[in-house]
Fold:
Amino acid sequence: MINKNFQKKLLELQGNMLNFAFILTSNRDDAYDLLQDTTLKALDNEEKYAENTNFKGWVFTIMRNIFINNYRRTVRCATKVDTTDDLYHLNLPRDSSNETPDNTYAIREIHEAIDSFSPEYRVPFSMHLAGYRYAEIAEQMNLPVGTIKSRIYYARQKLRVQLRDYSAE
Structure:
């Protein structure tokens, strides 16, 4: 059963919700979609709302979480995972600005630097570049999340040292 007071509060917030959705998405159509998803989710979960708590904060948290989940889903669907043994096919952006000889050489150097890592650093770092979250990498490699985070951190540090010539440019 839908509470009329709950519906009234939700309808009064629609303008604020649309503004927040537009801030998150920067696109009018996506903002309307996010507003609709949030409204439906709030109505579906009305029984989870505790009276005398911050209703606006509760609804905005729902909206933010929906936006984050949709963003992660989009990134994961757009990511190509390299399943080759040599891990040469990282998910690097490919546009016309990368087609210069200098950029091609730089990308080759980055690949060579990553390939020079031992597998314990190369595999989690490559998966992280491909868009996997720490927990997903840890699950796939059967290691604790903290170990994965530290290996990715050390791989970044190694890469930074190996490619320090590019930081001056």
In short: The mean pLDDT is 82.
